[in-house]
């Protein structure tokens, strides 16, 4: 494997008598999104501050591109820090400066850019983070969510190569939370920076993370992909992941992929051959086009609403769902054959058609009329497939995807919503 | 028997040891306090030097001008108010003291020299400490505990250059100007009480000032103001900048205590350094 961008070797940190990090070992690779998860007070922020040099370790070594930081010259350290940006958990906005001045500060102080160029860059970030109305306001006049977005805009204003996000979605509503995670993922793909996140948003962060680091009892107990974490047998999984996933289920009606697999396994174990189950796969089509026209938060809101309707109709007969990727939801109906599943899907479509039009208009159309380049089409397709207890669920999901048909579509244009 | 003797000797040894600890405890406390003070003094000196040696850039100028406005211009009213009454009370007291000896002609000299040499620099420094110094400590302290200073580090903006250096420079510029204002208005105060209210001849008042105030008095006074400026700005900025490292409290309380410490330490150091500088200049 490549040389890690950042590596900790037996890093220990104490504050007085209190041991915060105990011989921590970790590796963070370039160009990836790495998420550090753990309970509150576990030392995640302390760990992040070690990376940017705000805190020095008591013992152990930190390596930057394979070179120990303690042996780097001041110039080399400055060059390394110049590539980094940090978004603080408490935002750390300058309360005597306006939102514009806060975002412009790094450019004003560390570059020789002309005022017009600074203005262009700052206004672009302000628009991306939906802070246009707050340009001249002071941080104390903003909501917690807006302050978070202002801090995010400031962290990204210098187009850094490495961005450290300390709980970037704390205090955000579900729509904006997803929008921020999407923005991080989108920018990461676009600019190719290395993102290091501290987050509690499980499983949402899994969708954007290449690697996950689990901090538990002052040590890194897991390093690997989100999929590997799902099979990680450790008290960390019971204490941290399960409790966070339970909250997620209550909020959206969706299970994590790990819970989905466990539930599925438990259900199928009890079944005998000849007792079929069904799988429904829902997909929101052409997500990239919707994001480009209306922004990522609209997609997340559409998916969230779809999930609530799915849970309402399929949950009542023992169905359970998970989000496979940003635009796809898989629902397992352990006690239903394909005919019963089709009947419930028809009911779902009727209900969704009747009630979701206003939702879509309120969320998507009315808010974004000014920025819409042209009509935007929302299409949901769904497919059903039947399986036997011996059949692998992946095979059934593939069959369901192959049989997907359009079940609902709406076009948002300047005049309103056309079904 | 032998055991009893051994036991007695042991208890006597223990008693002596305890007495020794008891007697040495105050000395240890004094020693710790001295070491602590020396540490703080060294740290504050390094802080001052690092703030002053930061290379000046055109961008710094606007920050310095802002601070001159905040420390200097906005303190003018309070300085004028304090100085006029200081001058008036000086005029009043000296007139009544000197008239007994028929020496009321020296009122102008007494008022002007008192103001230029001592009261002007000292009272101006104390007033600025109370008005702008405390606010500076609180402002920097809040920036520290809300991680704004850490944010500057992460943005590669030197906090000493961005926050501290302009304040120290502005203080060095503002203090002599405000002290001059204090001296002039104070002399007007002395004129009001001794000439307007008590009937001293105005020509005598002004002549005694002109005849007895030397350029050295003025320059000595201004040297003091520069020393006070450095002390006040350094102490107030230092207390705010390291508010998070206080051992006696945390958060908002730490900022409050840092502000109190800044004012108290500044005032004490103004008076101590006044004596030291005076004895060196005289």
Could you describe the 3D structure shown?
The complex is a heterodimer of chains A (419) and B (282). Chain A is an alpha+beta fold. Chain A folds into two domains: 6-248, Rossmann fold, CATH 3.40.50; 253-418, Reverse transcriptase/Diguanylate cyclase domain (Alpha-Beta Plaits), CATH 3.30.70.270. Chain A has helices spanning 44-51, 74-82, 99-110, 115-128, 144-156, 174-191, 204-208, 226-230, 235-252, 257-270, 287-294, 296-314, 338-368, 393-402, and strands at residues 6-15, 18-28, 33-37, 59-64, 67-68, 84-87, 162-166, 194-198, 211-216, 219-224, 277-284, 320-325, 328-333, 376-387, 405-413, 416-418. In chain A, helix 6 links the parallel strand 7 (162-166) and strand 8. In chain B, helix 1 (2-52) crosses helix 8 (215-241) and helix 3 packs antiparallel against helix 4. Chain B has two domains: 1-53; 59-281, no CATH class. Chain B is flat and about 85 Å long. The A-B interface holds A 49, 52-54, 78, 81-82, 84-86, 88, 90, 92-96, 105-106, 108-110, 158 and B 59, 139, 142-143, 146-148, 150-151, 153-157, 162.
